[in-house]
Design a protein that fits this description.
This protein is mainly α and 345 residues long. Helix content is 71%, strand content 2%. The protein is globular. It is found in: Mitochondrion inner membrane.
Length: 345
């Protein structure tokens, strides 16, 4: 009797799936697979570029009057010489603990936001065959970025602190949870969201452009096939990697100054970063920021406009493969798991 009931339930779920109506268990499984694919994509892509990620942060918060390294290669050599191989991956465990849920939420949120925006767009235009435009994709990507960033922001704060801590740092964190408890105890819960405003503003063009450029490039290549890259309406992995690289380059360049300001607001008082210059040319006490605008003003005033792009080179080298790997890994994992809906669909 029990086996007959189980067979009937499976038959009903299969029928609902064929008719386009998803049973609760079927929908939950699809959501879980989508989240898993996003998490795997984030973990793999970020670990692959972990040394460049650390180098970018160190360049962003480096005191301009006590420079240890002037570029990416020199900085990586310095880390290797002083901290060894493990130093290149310092903070990566915490970074993955943040990026895996962040990536999972971001990709899933983008799919849901895209569906909602497309449905509204079709209702407004009266065209049931209408598709997402680049502008609508930009909006969906921005929504996804804000949701994911806000949900995991304390982890980003902790990751930044662990990445730059040295023997001279005011606190020494043994790990992610110790850092969280120490910050809450010593600085209060608001400290976990230092730099949140520039992060929100920066993630709008960053995530929005990443998704919009990636999908628009893919659509253009599939529909026009200008270079003969499309085979059976499907792009190769290499072509998709190139689309992801272009998307990452555009998004990070536009949003980078906000990332610098966010990091500086998080690191106030740490590692002698962003110090005021005295009349004799020596650095005084570290800067304190009253907000995002004040951080922008003081950074440009004391270090010049170029300071807003400190670490851009290692970030560019990092973002190109990272975003590309994330997009392609997400689609490949979803194919392996048998999820029928991919980003570009």
């Amino acid at each position: 009797m029990a086996s007959e009931t189980k067979i009937v339930n499976l038959a009903e779920e299969a029928k609902l799936a064929r008719e386009g109506v998803k049973a609760p268990s079927y929908a939950l499984l699809t959501i879980s697979k989508s989240l898993l694919a996003g998490g795997v994509a984030g973990g793999i892509s970020r670990t692959a570029v972990a040394p460049l990620e650390r180098m970018k942060i160190l360049l962003q918060v480096q005191n301009s009057h006590n420079i240890k390294y002037n570029g990416t290669i020199q900085g990586l050599k310095y880390i290797w010489g002083t901290e060894g191989f493990r130093g290149l991956f310092k903070g990566n465990g915490t970074n993955c603990a943040r990026i895996i849920p962040n990536s999972a939420v971001k990709f899933f949120s983008y799919e849901q936001a895209s569906k909602a925006i497309l449905q509204l767009y079709r209702q407004r235009t009266g065209n049931e065959d209408a598709q997402l435009t680049p502008v609508l994709r930009l909006g969906a990507g921005s929504c996804a970025g804000i949701i994911a960033m806000s949900a995991t922001y304390p982890m980003d704060m902790v990751r930044g602190r662990i990445t730059v801590q040295t023997e001279k740092s005011p606190f020494h964190y043994r790990g992610m949870f110790h850092a969280l408890s120490t910050i809450l105890k010593e600085e209060g819960p608001r400290a976990l969201y230092k730099g949140w405003v520039p992060s929100v503003i920066g993630v709008i063009p960053y995530a929005g452009l990443n998704f919009a450029v990636y999908e628009s490039l893919k659509d253009w290549l599939v529909t026009s096939n200008p270079f003969g890259l499309v085979q059976d309406s499907e792009l190769s992995v290499v072509t998709r990697l190139a689309c992801g690289a272009a998307a990452g380059t555009v998004g990070q360049t536009v949003a980078y100054p906000f990332d610098v300001i966010r990091r500086r607001m998080q690191m106030v008082g740490w590692n002698h970063a962003s110090s005021v210059v005295a009349g004799d040319g020596r650095a005084k006490a570290p800067l304190e920021y009253t907000g995002m605008v004040d951080a922008f003003r003081k950074t440009v005033r004391y270090e010049g406009f170029g300071a807003l792009f400190k670490g851009l080179v290692p970030n560019s080298v990092k973002v190109v493969p990272s975003i590309a790997i994330a997009f392609v890994t997400y689609e490949v994992v979803k194919d392996i798991l048998g999820v029928e809906i991919r980003i570009s669909d």
